[in-house]
Design a protein that fits this description.
Blueprint: E1 2-6, H1 34-41, H2 44-47, E2 50-51, E3 56-57, H3 75-80, H4 87-91, E4 94-99, E5 102-107, H5 112-120, E6 127-130, H6 136-140, H7 142-154, H8 161-175, H9 180-190, H10 193-203, H11 210-224, H12 228-233, H13 237-244, H14 252-266, H15 270-284, H16 290-316, H17 323-338, H18 344-354, H19 359-372
Parallel strand pairs: 1-5
Antiparallel strand pairs: 1-6, 2-3, 4-5
Helix pairs in contact: 5-15, 5-17, 7-15, 8-10, 8-16, 8-19, 11-19, 14-16, 15-16, 16-17, 16-19
The structure holds iron/sulfur cluster.
The site of iron/sulfur cluster has 11 residues, from helix 5.
Length: 373
């Protein structure tokens, strides 16, 4: 059987109590399989921490798993050893799945250790092929070809990341509501260096001011982060609450200064931003359904813009950004977006159905990426 792996897959190990943002908190969705439920319910110590109706581990008021101790270690592992872990806990953040006859291995961006590895990994992020080569089915499936084109564009460093991303968004939109022959023509057109160069040059002529970018971002934050449940989960919500939920008159001079500081800080994490995007696309596009492809690209835009804007707000609040804060913020948005643990997916569907966000709005957000990173 053929296998394709994100290059850092085999190097990953969980840093457990050294982790700044344990995966045993803020999800409340560690689902259990029937045979795991059976084993756990036979052991009274474990059974009391199981939500039998929902078939998952109970989480406490502070949104931590019942079995997570104060040192960041799992009480079940300490008492029974690693074999006691359920499938989700023992595999996270590893994602292994079959895609058109090829076994694919990747890592979720919701883990700070993965983000650290993506920051230190090469660009373009390599994928390792093992086994007999790709199946015909894999090579010829339209979703695999679209995914490859998107990853190639993401890794084309001749253009700034925000331009690559908006170009991809335009490409995906051009595929919508087309029959297969028309889609192939669109793919041919967008899979060309000259076309990227020509189209993205026009992006420079469109001026967007920072206030407009802020307005769009605040609107989206309020749309996604507006329930009390979400607020409890968001570790840096105080910054969002302080600046996004009311009319704040930002000081434009201070904005410029803080953006410069943020840009200087993020310059060391350029590889991480590109690699996060590549990882989202590799993981997300496993179907030729148009809404899956479009939602993956939007998830990529949202993960980056929401994370970077949260970092900007921390700077604006005169706080120092530690590396852990930065990883935690990207992890948090990756978790809610990739795993749909809160109502992000619902929000996204509503946004798409109601046309709340237009193509122009996504251009504004992408341009915001240029300013924020
Ligand atoms: S988030 Fe990653 S590093 Fe942290 S505890 Fe979970 S798997 Fe380990």
């Amino acid at each position: 059987m053929s296998e394709i792996k994100i290059s850092i897959f085999d190097e990953f190990f969980c840093i457990a109590d050294k982790c700044s943002y344990s995966c045993c908190r803020d999800w409340n969705k560690i689902g259990l399989l029937d045979d795991e439920m059976k084993i756990y319910l036979e052991e009274p110590y474990i059974a009391k921490g199981i939500d039998v109706t929902e078939k998952k581990f109970k989480f406490k008021e502070d949104n931590r798993c019942t079995f997570l101790n104060n040192s960041g270690l799992c009480k079940l592992v300490l008492k029974y050893g690693g074999d006691i872990l359920c499938h989700t806990c023992s595999t996270y953040p590893r994602i292994i799945r079959m895609n058109h006859g090829v076994k694919e291995f990747t890592l979720g961006n919701g883990c700070p250790k993965v983000l650290d590895m993506l920051a230190k990994a090469d660009v373009p992020l390599p994928f390792l092929l093992e086994g007999e080569g790709f199946t015909e089915e894999y090579l010829n499936s339209i979703d695999t070809v679209i995914r490859d084109i998107i990853i190639d564009i993401l890794q084309c460093r001749d253009f700034p990341l925000w331009k690559r991303i908006y170009f991809i968004y335009s490409f995906v939109n051009a595929l919508i509501n087309k029959i297969e022959d028309e889609q192939l023509a669109v793919m041919g057109e967008y899979n060309s260096y000259d076309y990227i160069a020509r189209l993205t040059k026009n992006y420079d002529t469109i001026e967007i001011d920072f206030e407009t970018i802020i307005k769009k971002l605040h609107y989206f934050f309020n749309y996604v982060n507006n329930s009390e449940e979400n607020k409890k989960r968001m570790p840096y919500i105080k910054y969002i609450d302080k600046y996004c939920n009311k009319e704040i008159n930002f000081d434009m001079k201070k904005i410029e200064l803080k953006l410069t500081e943020l840009n200087e800080y993020m310059a060391d994490y350029e590889n991480m931003l590109e690699n996060i995007c590549v990882n989202i696309v590799f993981r997300g596009i496993t179907s030729s359904k148009q809404e899956v492809i479009l939602n993956t690209v939007i998830a990529m835009i949202m993960t980056l813009t929401m994370s970077l804007y949260t970092l900007f707000l921390i700077k604006y609040d005169e706080k120092i950004i530690e590396e852990n804060d930065m990883y935690n913020i990207f992890s948090y948005y990756s978790r809610i977006i990739e795993n749909n643990t809160i109502n992000y997916k619902e929000s996204l569907d509503r946004i798409m159905e109601n046309g709340i966000f237009s193509k122009g709005d996504f251009f504004i957000l992408c341009k915001g990426l240029d300013i924020l990173s």
